[in-house]
Amino acid sequence: MTSKILAVDTATENCSVALKIGDDVIARCEMAPREHTTKVLPMVDEVLAEGGITLNQLDALAFGRGPGSFTGVRIGIGIAQGLAFGADLPMVGISTLAAMAEQVHRLQGGEQVISAIDARMNEIYVAQFTRQNNGDWLENHPEAVTRPEQFCPENLDGQWLLAGTGWQAYPDLAERLNLSVSKEGVLFPESQDMVALADFALSRGEAVAAELASPIYLRDTVTWKKLPGRE
């Protein structure tokens, strides 16, 4: 695959940008929970300059479509859409959960991964993946938002590695599933793993025009409890 793809992700506390040109990847990544809007565009400029390429020379622009922080996901898609509109680029959304599975493979060689992000409100965003021979990922358990005690993965035969903040937030989950959490494990998605997945998404025809790009929140409705004394 020789696609030239730029990826942007701000869906979690981590802020990252990556440029893929053929088999080469140039990446920037920084933990910046409240500085996404000031960090992303300079990162974009840096990777494009290092790659010696302009936005107009890209084949597509990928973005972290969630799940993740509501604000973070909106920031990421907004910035990505602005870049795509300006360069007339198609866009492709990449699951943050799948990106963490890819990162587990890149760093630890894992081929069976359960990714879980702390969704707050006593819930997690979670999905279960198995790596295919072509390098793409199969969802054994589709993306969902659920209470940790209600998550029931598919067959857990073989070695399963864990990714995401959900396992630290709810340690009883791993204990219930008889799985161990690595202290050096993957906690947040990174754009350099999204560009790898974007190639597969493009080959499946998942690219859309910038105005049609949309995030994935999973949590459609939220019930807020009123504070005492407030109407």
UniProtKB/TrEMBL annotation:
Keywords, sorted A to Z: Cytoplasm, Transferase, tRNA processing
Record-linked Pfam families: TsaD
An annotated Gene Ontology molecular function: transferase activity
Location of the Gcp-like domain: 30-213
Gene3D superfamilies: 3.30.420.40
Compartments it resides in: Cytoplasm
One Gene Ontology term, aspect cellular component: cytosol
UniProt GO BP: tRNA threonylcarbamoyladenosine modification
Keyword Repeat belongs to the record: no
Matching CDD domains: ASKHA_NBD_TsaB
Similarity-based family: Belongs to the KAE1 / TsaD family. TsaB subfamily.
Name of the protein in question: tRNA threonylcarbamoyladenosine biosynthesis protein TsaB
Organism (species): Veronia pacifica
